[in-house]
Design a protein that fits this description.
globular; three-stranded antiparallel sheet; 61% helix; single chain; alpha+beta; 138 residues
């Protein structure tokens, strides 16, 4: 589902890049002038470096983060050891990246992208559920 991410990138005047990390980690880096948001991410690094797609990826990552009540739930969902100091450091880095991304694009645009991503995910889930029910009937 298309989002307004290309418009947000154009209007905010920010750039977006991917930086490789170690052991399944990478960072999405958004910047404009002296403001920078560095979002640590887990999993597969995007192969498409289009700034709008990177912003969408960041919003998806942050939607998951926002759903967690605290570092304990976040770490549990990612199967991370909360007793490891690196876990708390990563949690704080994601929280800081969210604040910095909001400073770059504004709260209203951030909320709008979050809503668009949530609607797209709900539509995909409904379509998958419908397709699965059709497969069961045949």
């Amino acid at each position: 589902m298309p989002t307004s991410a290309p418009t947000v990138i154009a209007r905010s005047g920010m750039s977006a890049t991917i930086q490789s990390g170690g052991l399944g980690l990478f960072q999405l880096v958004f910047r404009r002038a002296t403001v920078k948001a560095e979002l640590p991410c887990r999993g597969h690094q995007p192969v498409d470096d289009d700034p709008a797609r990177l912003l969408e990826k960041a919003v998806v990552e942050l939607a998951f983060f926002d759903e967690c009540d605290d570092v304990l739930e976040w770490a549990d969902e990612l199967d991370l050891d909360v007793a490891n100091p690196e876990t708390l450091a990563e949690f704080k880095a994601v929280d800081e990246a969210r604040s910095n991304l909001i400073a770059l694009i504004g709260q209203q645009r951030y909320d709008g992208l979050q809503t668009e991503i949530a609607i797209g995910q709900a539509i995909s889930a409904a379509a998958f559920g419908y397709a699965s029910s059709q497969d069961e009937q045949t």
